[in-house]
Amino acid sequence: WEDSEETKKVSQIIAVNQVPVHKKCKSGKFKWIYSKNLKVGDIIKIREQETVPADVLILSKSCNARKFKLK
Description:
By secondary structure, the protein is α+β, with helices and mostly antiparallel strands. The chain is 17% helix and 17% strand. It has one helix spanning 5-16, and strands at 20-24, 30-34, 44-45. A hairpin with a 5-residue loop joins strand 1 (20-24) and strand 2. It starts with a helix and ends in a 26-residue tail after the last strand.
């Protein structure tokens, strides 16, 4: 069972849940939390080349960003 596809998927899920994200607090400041603690409606800051471990709705982008690409 060690090398099965199921084991690989579980390992990937665990790794994704440990990704740090920059979440906006009620005070308006941002703090780092693990992605496993994200909840529906949370606002996060995504920086260039960051992995987003969730479904997101892009609310805005910085004005100096000329390109915007999602994979």
